[in-house]
Amino acid sequence: MLITTILFYLFSAILLGSATAVITARNPVYASLFLVLAFFNAAALFILLGAEFLGLVLILVYVGAVMVLFLFVVMMLDINLTRLKEGFLSYLPLGLAIAILGVLELAVVFWTSPLGHVPAPAPIPANADNTRALGVLLYTHYLYPFEIAAVILLVAIIAAIALTLRRRQGTKTQNIDAQMAVRAKDRLSLVNLRGPEQ
């Protein structure tokens, strides 16, 4: 067995385990950290399959930006965990029914699809640069959808910042006007350590 095959199964197993932990973790911070682990393993799978651009973008964009922002929002919002756990059992039958339906649909797709009759892909040339080809296609043919996605991400960032900047009673905030108005003589005082007789 090749080392790439072993790594593929290893990363896939870790990815499935961390994805399961995302939806079963009771603490939203732990769920976010398991999602980061799932993204890293998915990026490793992309790199193993020869799509290094997708793997690096998954790490840079999702782990480096979106997940960090999501983790900060989850940590800064006052989430009442006991209130979230109260209705868990009432939603369990519906969740199990949806999960079973999804598994059945996937089984039907795999059972009826001609996976064994798919022709082998053309061999990739040695000097092929899929990052350059993807960039040329992305910034020419798909320029407007790319810009729309960027605007949507910007709106999401602004919304997350607006959620965390709510004025809550009992929280400490900076008074920047008072900090800027401070003079040196208000903060600095000289003390004679030798005593008044000297």
Give an account of the 3D structure.
The protein is mainly α and 198 residues long. Among the domains are: 1-79, Up-down Bundle (Four Helix Bundle (Hemerythrin (Met), subunit A)), CATH 1.20.120; 127-162. 70% of the residues lie in helices and 0% in strands. It has nine helices and no strands. The model has no long low-confidence stretch (mean pLDDT 80).
What descriptive keywords fit this protein?
single chain; 198 residues; mainly alpha; Four Helix Bundle (Hemerythrin (Met), subunit A); 9 helices
Task: Map the helices and strands.
Blueprint: H1 3-24, H2 28-48, H3 52-76, H4 81-86, H5 88-112, H6 130-138, H7 143-164, H8 176-180, H9 184-187
Helix pairs in contact: 1-2, 2-3, 3-7
Which CATH class of the domain at 1-79?
Mainly Alpha
Give me the CATH architecture of the domain at 1-79, please: Up-down Bundle
Relative helix content: over 70%
Q: On the 0-100 scale, what is the average pLDDT?
A: 80
Cα Rg: 27 Å
Task: Give a short summary of the structure.
The chain is an all-alpha fold and 198 residues long. It is 70% helix and 0% strand. Among the domains are: 1-79, Four Helix Bundle (Hemerythrin (Met), subunit A), CATH 1.20.120.1200; 127-162.
